[in-house]
């Protein structure tokens, strides 16, 4: 272990009362914007294996009364869940708001029966420090395998990801931060679990009506009446803009944000996770990571507009009551097809040369990709529908 990491772990063990008696920290495995994650051995593993009840009675340490209720120790088949020997301890930064921490723990608790979501074993607090304990999930670093994935492996990966998304969305929960580091995938077991519900929220909790929800006819009428009128003969940026500024949840990660998040749609749905999953697929098919590399929301819009073209992007803006004007020369009016983008990124149609076409598998993948990266969230495929798509459906033998 790196001496600096060791020092950090020692400090954590010394300041968090009681942790040494229960866990042996092994290494630091993650350091994000909101937390540090350690791999640790649960020292009570051998003593109390298969017996959660006993632990509750005898445990006089600060680790009493875990939020995981007794019934959850037994799964649907009546099997006792074994307490894992290795755990991931997520030390949530003390600068996170208590509401936010509570939100993450509550949502994880709600999702405890979803196989494809890394379950919460328990959580502890010592003064202002909160830690969440999750089973350690062995996984492969995305950067180590995404370039070499064969089509069958890509399908298996996305079947696993969309199974997880379907389960989360079914509960009316948006993850909001779907990206490779939050989907821990084991390439040997061909199984993945979702982690990091730090930005997740219940659908509808943050919403005021957005224009994208109104009917087509109302929309047409409103646009002819207001947008054209408001634009008027004068051009440029209004100096004294009296319009209320737009506010909407923009949480997420650069490059994975859906267009409706960028346009500050006030009624964001689970479809934002589908867009992010689509960006992962685009990354794999194009063999480029990160695929989008913007520094801010405006740059992100430019990147998306470069692919989709001015016309479609303007329609997308209008859908959320925004107006998009641009004179950037690289944004054409018609944009490019996903097929073209993938051929380019994999260097299969360099200037003048004959194109190597996509193979049948890639064509199907691109069809699916287009369903995920549909600009209009209302038309974008849902996780449940995705599992029925030819690209993901498991053929009955
Ligand atoms: P953050 O909010 O800081 O991004 P995450 O929950 O995403 O925190 O965890 C950060 C990283 O820690 C993950 O990307 C992953 O590498 C590692 N990690 C988190 N949970 C687990 C787990 N249960 N098993 C193994 N590694 C994990
Ligand atoms: Mg994360």
From TrEMBL:
Gene Ontology CC annotations of this record: chromatin; chromosome, centromeric region; Dbf4-dependent protein kinase complex
Region span, Disordered: 221-252
CDD domains: STKc_Cdc7 (cd14019)
EC number(s) stated in the UniProt entry for this protein: 2.7.11.1
One Pfam family in the UniProt entry: Pkinase
Annotated keywords: ATP-binding, Kinase, Nucleotide-binding, Serine/threonine-protein kinase, Transferase
Domain called Protein kinase: residue spans: 23-392
Keyword Nucleotide-binding: yes
Gene3D superfamilies, per the entry: Phosphorylase Kinase, domain 1 (3.30.200.20), Transferase(Phosphotransferase) domain 1 (1.10.510.10)
InterPro entries: Kinase-like_dom_sf, Prot_kinase_dom, Ser/Thr_kinase_AS
Molecular function via GO: ATP binding; identical protein binding; protein serine/threonine kinase activity
Top enzyme class: transferase
GO BP terms in the entry: DNA replication initiation; double-strand break repair via break-induced replication; G1/S transition of mitotic cell cycle; mitotic DNA replication checkpoint signaling; mitotic DNA replication preinitiation complex assembly; mitotic intra-S DNA damage checkpoint signaling; negative regulation of exit from mitosis; positive regulation of DNA repair
Keyword Transferase part of the UniProt annotation: yes
Superkingdom of origin organism: Eukaryota
PROSITE patterns xref list: PROTEIN_KINASE_DOM, PROTEIN_KINASE_ST
This protein's name: non-specific serine/threonine protein kinase
Organism (species): Glarea lozoyensis (strain ATCC 20868 / MF5171)
């Amino acid at each position: 272990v790196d001496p600096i990491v060791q020092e950090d772990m020692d400090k954590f063990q010394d300041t968090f009362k009681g942790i040494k008696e229960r866990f042996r920290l092994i290494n630091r495995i993650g350091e994000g914007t909101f937390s540090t994650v350690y791999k640790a051995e649960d020292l009570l593993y051998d003593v109390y294996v298969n017996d959660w009840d006993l632990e509750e009675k005898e445990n006089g340490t600060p680790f009493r009364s875990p939020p995981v209720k007794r019934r959850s120790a037994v799964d649907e088949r009546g099997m006792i869940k074994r307490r894992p020997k290795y755990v991931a301890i997520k030390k949530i930064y003390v600068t996170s708001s208590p509401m936010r921490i509570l939100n993450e723990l509550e949502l994880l608790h709600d999702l405890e029966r979803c196989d494809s979501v890394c379950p919460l074993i328990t959580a502890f607090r010592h003064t202002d420090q909160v830690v969440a304990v999750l089973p350690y999930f062995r996984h492969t670093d995305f950067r180590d395998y995404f370039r070499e994935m064969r089509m069958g492996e890509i399908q298996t990966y996305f079947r696993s990801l969309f199974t997880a998304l379907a389960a989360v969305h079914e509960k009316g929960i948006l993850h909001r931060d779907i990206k490779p580091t939050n989907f821990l995938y084991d390439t040997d077991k061909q199984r993945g679990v979702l982690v990091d519900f730090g930005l997740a929220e219940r659908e509808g909790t943050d919403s005021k009506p957005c224009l994208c929800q109104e009917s087509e006819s109302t929309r047409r009428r409103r646009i002819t009446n207001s947008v054209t009128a408001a634009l008027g003969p004068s051009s440029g940026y209004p100096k004294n803009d009296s319009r209320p500024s737009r506010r909407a949840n923009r949480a997420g990660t650069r490059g994975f944000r859906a267009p409706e998040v960028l346009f500050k749609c006030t009624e964001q749905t689970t479809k934002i996770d589908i867009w992010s999953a689509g960006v992962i697929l685009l990354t794999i098919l194009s063999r480029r990571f990160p695929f989008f590399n913007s520094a801010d929301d405006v740059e992100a819009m430019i990147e998306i507009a470069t692919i989709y073209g001015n016309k479609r992007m303007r329609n997308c803006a209008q859908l959320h009551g925004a107006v998009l004007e641009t004179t950037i020369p690289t944004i054409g009016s018609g944009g490019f097809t996903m097929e073209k983008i993938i051929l380019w990124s994999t260097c299969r149609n360099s200037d003048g040369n004959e194109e190597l076409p996509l193979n049948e598998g890639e064509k199907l993948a691109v069809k699916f990709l287009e369903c995920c990266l549909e600009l209009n969230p209302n038309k974008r495929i849902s996780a449940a529908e995705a599992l029925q798509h030819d690209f993901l459906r498991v053929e009955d033998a």
